[in-house]
Amino acid sequence: MHDRLWEIVELDFSPDELLHYETLFTIGNGYLGTRGAFEEGYPGDTPVTLVHGVYDHTPGMLVPELVNVPNWLPINIYVDGTPFKLITKTTDFMRPPEGVVLGYRRALNMRRGVLTREVLFRAPSGNIVRLEFERFASLHDIHVLAQRVRITAVDGNAHIRVESAIDADVTNAGVPHYLPEFTLDDRGDTIGVELKTQQSKYIVGVASRLVSPRRIQTGSTEKRPYTVTSFDLAQEDWVVLDKFSSIYTSRDALSPLETAQGKIAEAASVGYEELRARHEAEWAKYWATSDIHIDGDEEAQRALRFTTYHILIPAPRLDERVSIGAKTLSGLGYKGHVFWDTELFCVPPLILTQPKLARNLLMYRYHNLPGARHKAQANGYDGAMYPWESTDTGEETTPQWSDPQPDGTKIRIWTGDSEQHISTDIAYAIEKYWRWTGDDEFLTQYGAEMILDTAVFWGSRVEEKNGRFEISQQIGPDEYHENIDNSVFVNRMVVWHLQTAFAVLDWLKANAPADHQRLVEALKLTPERLALWLDITQRMYLPFDTNEGIHVQFPGFFDMEYIPVPHYTPRIGSVQAMLGHARTIQTQVIKQADVVMLMALLGENIGVPEGFSVREVMLNNWNTYYPRCDHGSSLSPAMHAWTAARLGLIDTAYELFDHAVHIDLHDNKGNVRDGIHAAACGGVWQAIVFGFCGLHIDAAGQPAVDPRLPEHWRSVTFTVYYRGEKQTFTVKNPALVSSS
Amino acid sequence: MHDRLWEIVELDFSPDELLHYETLFTIGNGYLGTRGAFEEGYPGDTPVTLVHGVYDHTPGMLVPELVNVPNWLPINIYVDGTPFKLITKTTDFMRPPEGVVLGYRRALNMRRGVLTREVLFRAPSGNIVRLEFERFASLHDIHVLAQRVRITAVDGNAHIRVESAIDADVTNAGVPHYLPEFTLDDRGDTIGVELKTQQSKYIVGVASRLVSPRRIQTGSTEKRPYTVTSFDLAQEDWVVLDKFSSIYTSRDALSPLETAQGKIAEAASVGYEELRARHEAEWAKYWATSDIHIDGDEEAQRALRFTTYHILIPAPRLDERVSIGAKTLSGLGYKGHVFWDTELFCVPPLILTQPKLARNLLMYRYHNLPGARHKAQANGYDGAMYPWESTDTGEETTPQWSDPQPDGTKIRIWTGDSEQHISTDIAYAIEKYWRWTGDDEFLTQYGAEMILDTAVFWGSRVEEKNGRFEISQQIGPDEYHENIDNSVFVNRMVVWHLQTAFAVLDWLKANAPADHQRLVEALKLTPERLALWLDITQRMYLPFDTNEGIHVQFPGFFDMEYIPVPHYTPRIGSVQAMLGHARTIQTQVIKQADVVMLMALLGENIGVPEGFSVREVMLNNWNTYYPRCDHGSSLSPAMHAWTAARLGLIDTAYELFDHAVHIDLHDNKGNVRDGIHAAACGGVWQAIVFGFCGLHIDAAGQPAVDPRLPEHWRSVTFTVYYRGEKQTFTVKNPALVSSS
Prior knowledge:
By secondary structure, chain A is an alpha+beta fold. The first copy, chain A, has 3 domains: 4-257, Glycoside hydrolase, family 65, N-terminal domain (Beta-galactosidase, Chain A, domain 5, Distorted Sandwich), CATH 2.70.98.40; 299-692, Glycosyltransferase (Alpha/alpha barrel); 700-740, no CATH class. A 9-stranded antiparallel beta sheet of chain A has the order 1-8-9-10-11-18-15-14-13. A 5-stranded antiparallel beta sheet of chain A has the order 7-6-12-17-16, with no helix packed on it. In chain A, α11 crosses α13, α18 (636-646) packs antiparallel against α19 (650-661) and α19 (650-661) packs antiparallel against α20 (678-692).
């Protein structure tokens, strides 16, 4: 009862929803993520566990990907000789030939970070058993994975056999990532396996132990060490079995399997309940800052906890050389690659609520500066040019071609070439982190170098022509329009970037002169270079239509066919999916917040020509671009919600927020099976805190709110860190407060 | 936004959910109910419209049933020659061979009583149209049925053809109910059809008119008059078409078709929007009293409005010769028959919120006194013995045999013979109505006669033996145990019944002596008969276990096998479904609240032997019977919730309430396709008002509350009539009030 708004519950098992719920019910602890696959397996399931940083580029594949490590979940239960499976239909419910499930309930408790499942199963013998499964990936000790199963003989005296295994015969949807040699241990009471990835040569070790009140026996079939135990269970009796597993890789241990085996011994001696108590205590710490309380909208409350949970579980706790992929660790989509989704969507909530985690994520970019410099150099530019898609190497890993379409053709993917704003997005996150945390040590040692060296890149990237600075061949956030010239988003953000570079230099000069000197020398920040930067900030071309009083997404945008996107409701897919790629890119249909995103990021600092009101231009922009956007990207609705809230368009803001917060829960994009939409999860946090609540740093340098709450919300309570101090804000809806 | 908690929304069309949503999205107005089938049809759909009172007993069938009248919904839309169908999969989304649905949203707005559906459809031509459907069954004029469709050409210039029809080729799931002769009118702008039922000879007339801005044409295929209109729609243009339909039967008009045609002309001249405004105004009146506002539980709030909606739409507004069937007018389940579900579950909420509707329902029983007297006589008893299942005739219509089981055998159904408590249930509702409304005219003219003549029945039914009065061969609420002797529920309620008969007689004598005299004579309430009644109230056998301090459901109950029902969770079906009928009836598994129901109905008046505390016995009863109940009936959880709340077992009460309020929405019983569970809907209202809020009439004769709210509910606000005066109660949760 207490956890009514903390649980996502699946009340019926529907095979059609198998992969959707597998993603939703992912558990994780910042080290790994394990999809909510069943212990006993199911046809077509994808029992994937991804460990941060363990990428592999199998020969023949376009790009590297996060590797599916051995499956630690398998627990197979035989009732009177018949394996328990989720069979829901049968010819005879009293004597089901293959057994049948009579009851089912699965729940993810987000407060506790625990996934439970209860099943009532009748064996062909007619006997009925109740199976209660529980699992968690310890947040207290990231190498501890725990499972418990309680078996109750409900009707009849049942013979039970339980087989617990590690399944190392795993692939990434058919792509093999391990070398043929492997080590297997099935001798003692702990089973284990160790493998090595093909190209990257990471070693992965997994160990596991089943704790049973009865005698156990270990053995193995090919790549599958197992433990079995069996016993009779009299009617109304029950038994509890615990399974402890541990994963280490050569990224974190010299002898992964051996270390995992040691961890298992430790876990088993601590015991399941104490491990769970420690795990829950860590979750309580997370939620103490990360939980946003909405009073007056329970559905939004529950969904918001879900999105927050899915930002927290992939956020690395101890490792600053990994980052959150676009699909977190919850699925194979986008191959575990890291995009701007991290810095502009996932990092800001963490900056304010879990600053240590945010710092880890930003350090990932610092460690990958060599890759960014390499990309700049390879493209003929100076400084650091971050890759659009990033893995463990820091090299550009965006595939250049799509997988073949049904007709065999491939589509050229230009984002790795042209979506260059990623470098500025990273700078934006660093500046935000520094401003909110006051972590000057981070700035001087790491952050400044990234902001400045990416500024160096832009200084070499802009083109002086037509008496101004231009940037050609870009892809802005609206990816329907590729390789366009003078994206207002890109050009304006580059101006912001260079201005920020000056601000950082000024601060360093005044506060950390040695670091200033070091960076000026190392990055060759010559007076000529700085003069060029200043010139760019003053003469950058920012497309603006003075007749309409709007920012122009890019010159030529309004010459294309106008499609009234609102007419395409209700819709299941994007307008692009309806009109086709070829036609869409020649229309004014926008994939996602672009000028609107610029308004979210810069607010009233967006800048307008002399004689124009910023507020009016922002409203004009909204009225122009909102009806043209088909939200073909999951990143879009939350940014729209944020901006609409700031513009006072509350009903529209709520509608967009409501869509954004349910993108995964309702499978609004139809592809949740591939993984959680991390950016949407981070976006809804920002839509609430920056949008509806209007959190900002005021003129006095203090955090302040400026609420524009949905009409039915009574209040929102959230907690943020500002310069090391925790502050809790309760924002009330004046309309409701006065009427109650 | 405003209606966020007033809407049930279906966001994806799933063929598996077709019949479930058809039931949920039933519209109605107390005259008829129409399932939420699609205008264009769908394979396997059940587009059923049921009109109150129109039963027919087709030769060869076991029992009569409510007749499915002609389908007034059909609107078929052809886009560029292709019929719009809900096709969600295709080989080519750009040029779908049979068309394809690109977007879908359906919503039942309960506040407005309006069902809407929006669909985005692509024709094989590639053109995309948006279709917005709306329908309502006017609550203002029960013979007006209105539909609107708005068609927008979203992409491409489309050719549109619309065919509106009445489909009179209907059956009840294959069972024909009409005579072969029928009248069809397809001459003017209004189409119509008239049919006559086979056995009952009811005449049903349906008329319909399509209002189009373009030329229309009428015609017919066999039993299917139609109107067509067609036009070209340029991209971004739209058109609105209205369809008005009307149904009359020989129960309410001399010439049903002609009267319906006249009503159509009137409706068309009033116009769609004005008709809808009048309809919504009537709904506003309903909700002004019937809405219960729960603060602190939005999901319960929405679900509760849904259950209330489904009590309101089948409640007859103008007709006192019909009643609400166990599945309302929303499906063919139980054939439209009326059970105790009406008096003990649906009537009490209406007594307190819509007393006129409650009166109509009680008058149905008055008009059917002849049937009840006939049943008593046929069984060798005096007075009036109401049928377990009732239709338009008042005769017993319970089938004696089930339909054949898979193995060809049939099960004998004993409820029509032995579930005799129905007569007392009706008396209970009448007494409650009288007490709350103060409608003395109803009592003197109608109510007293029913209470007294059913008391006469019981006087002749009880058996004096073993030095006490006993009642053998009964079925109590727990229908798993059939033909048992001395059900404590039955015996105790009979005592209540006879005591109430005395109270009524006393009141009549004092306040309406002429009526007293009339009834004493007519019903032969001789001094001997009254002396017998008094004796029965004093010497009735009420099974009680003095060792355990519990009421005994019936002697011998505890000699049977004990099955710990809680072990059977989570479960999809009942424990009976798991163990089989044959075994279950020999165990202590209880189908539904029985002793618990007695506690709900009588509260602390349940009565205990000298020396026992009522409160303790009630708790003992709860602890005994709750763990034995498998809620095999949808009537059970709400009664348990009510009782648990009164006993202060709030968490358990909430859990049971939560189950009850979602029985239809979550299809907790797996049979919503057959219709709404009316009793569950009425039960949740009582669980809240009588259970959680503790509404009662206090010692001073005034309504008062005694709240035991679920811990997370802030407050509950409800409105009831007491003796003609409307009173609104706001019950606050003290724990939450003090902390906020």
